[in-house]
Amino acid sequence: MSTGNGYAPGRARQQQILAEATRAFGRAGFDGVTVQEIAEACGISRQGLLHHFASKEDLLMALLRQRDEADEELFRRTLADSGSPFRAILAVVRANAAAPAITAMFTQLAAEAIRPEHPAHDFFRGVYTRIHTDLRGTLMDMQREGTLVASIDPDQLASGLIALRDGLALQLFLRSEGQSAEEMTGTLEAMFSLLVPRS
Amino acid sequence: MSTGNGYAPGRARQQQILAEATRAFGRAGFDGVTVQEIAEACGISRQGLLHHFASKEDLLMALLRQRDEADEELFRRTLADSGSPFRAILAVVRANAAAPAITAMFTQLAAEAIRPEHPAHDFFRGVYTRIHTDLRGTLMDMQREGTLVASIDPDQLASGLIALRDGLALQLFLRSEGQSAEEMTGTLEAMFSLLVPRS
Question: Which regions of the protein are recorded as binding DNA (chains A, B) (predicted)?
């Protein structure tokens, strides 16, 4: 992919802008970055960037949607292959942990977006509601099939699994003894195996 | 406590400033609030506020320390009374859940503070490291006393318990079917009882 010249083809340029925006939002949050700075990191002008994305909000939403679709696709594919929603969550966390800028960006943006007026507030509420509903449904299916003990409340377990994913991501950055991405996914796996006794 | 006049006694005024700053940071994050706005909410001038706290950073740190001390004290008291670190975490989460502005503030500030240059970065790293170390120690004591099964890795379990606390707090604000604070603490309690089989 070309960097630093003004003539990258449209799609390659869009991907470059999305990659630089991920890095920038991960470093400074949505409010801490200007379109100008992202354009400079791509080696293009502010106008050049605005040709691809009409505003910083548009850029943010494109980036979040792209990320969400990639995560969702990996989740569904792993779930279909393994039959296990726990393996599916782990696959997504592993993929994201390999790219700390993305984890940093999501961690910060999700927390910023708890404010109702944040441009990504509705997006994140939609994503969290969908993930929780899907996961609860999968857990209920497992209980019907007898692969998950019936005494667990699928609503609470779905909330707990999502919370573990998010909370461990935060600790990647806030534990000074330096938890590695590998230790983080190891902990997630260990918690899942404690939480999910097989029937 | 007097509000809206310039003559509240020093300590009452400080507490008022801390309460208004909590609300403001919870609504808009550290970067989204000015000293002027917090001063106005207290009914005093910017100079009046800066007489109590020399800068917005000083105000933030005073507020975080006050909060951390209150949480720590409640945690230790409940741990001493009940002998259970799970009850102690739940007591802290319940106290904070009763004040959503505080939970919103901590959720946002912790995520903002993953950036190394954030004024509260070192504070949060210190807090997370201390909480994890203390909790791991308590879990190891329980294993020695036979009140927690020996097969669980206390390092991973400590990480998992902290992650559940943080991740469920985020869902308070990002699930559109409206998880209540009570449901959140109920979920936390259910996850604890799954994670922590007694010996």
Answer: 34-53
